[in-house]
């Protein structure tokens, strides 16, 4: 793993623990020599991640749609800033530039980005590890929903187990590095 794609809120949330965890995660990545790819904003948890990684001497690559540059106030001083035409292009480029995905607390955008990568993993379209930094049990309701989806036969047990959940940055990154390669869910039928 060389770069981690971080999905997180453009808001800071209501708990100081969210900002503290974002900073700690970014600092840990930088100290371990892992670059960060993120949504390019300088506000909320996104800004906290970028600031902390840059302060620790880490590589930070931002990807932001043109229409959000002014609304989200694109971060200055990044290693790279890619301005793209749409949210779809943003997600695709972030995925292309990354070796793993980690979701910190966030809103609908974070959930959308996470769900897309979980789906792509489930379909065998990528073999990159996906993790959740479960700050103050933020992701517990989603974890419970995923368990329910598995119990009801919509998510395979292997797909559920492939999502790495951690409460501390070091432990989460260690676990992501140990995730074995996955084989595609479906294979093509043999040629006639």
Explain the overall architecture.
By secondary structure, the chain is α/β, with parallel strands linked by helices. It is 45% helix and 17% strand. Strands 4-3-2-1-5-6-7 form a seven-stranded parallel β-sheet, with helices on both faces. Helix 2 links the parallel strand 2 and strand 3. Helix 1 runs parallel beside helix 2 (44-55). The longest helix has 16 residues, at 16-31. The model has no long low-confidence stretch (mean pLDDT 93).
* N- to C-terminal distance: 39 Å
Q: Give the class from helix and strand content and strand pairing.
A: alpha/beta
Q: What is the share of helical residues?
A: 40-55%
Q: Strand portion, in percent?
A: 15-25%
Oligomer: single chain
Largest sheet: 7 strands, parallel
* Mean pLDDT across residues: 93
Number of strands: 7
Q: What is the element string, with H for helices and E for strands?
A: EHEHEHEHEHEHHEH
């Amino acid at each position: 793993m060389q770069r981690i794609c971080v999905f997180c809120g453009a808001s800071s949330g209501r708990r100081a623990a969210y900002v503290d965890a974002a900073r700690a995660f970014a600092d840990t990545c930088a100290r371990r020599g892992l670059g960060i790819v993120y949504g390019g904003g300088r506000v909320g948890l996104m800004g906290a991640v970028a600031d902390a990684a840059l302060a620790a001497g880490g590589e930070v690559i931002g990807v932001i749609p043109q229409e959000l540059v002014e609304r989200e106030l694109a971060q200055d001083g990044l290693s790279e800033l890619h301005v793209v035409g749409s949210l779809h292009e943003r997600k695709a480029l972030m995925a292309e530039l990354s070796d793993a995905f980690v979701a910190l607390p966030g809103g609908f955008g974070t959930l959308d980005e996470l769900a897309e990568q979980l789906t792509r993993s489930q379909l065998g379209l990528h073999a990159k590890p996906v993790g959740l930094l479960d700050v103050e049990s933020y992701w517990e309701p989603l974890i419970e929903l995923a368990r329910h989806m598995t119990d009801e036969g919509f998510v395979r047990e292997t797909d559920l187990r492939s999502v790495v959940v951690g409460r501390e940055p070091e432990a989460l990154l260690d676990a992501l590095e140990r995730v074995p390669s996955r084989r595609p869910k479906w294979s093509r039928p043999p040629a006639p």
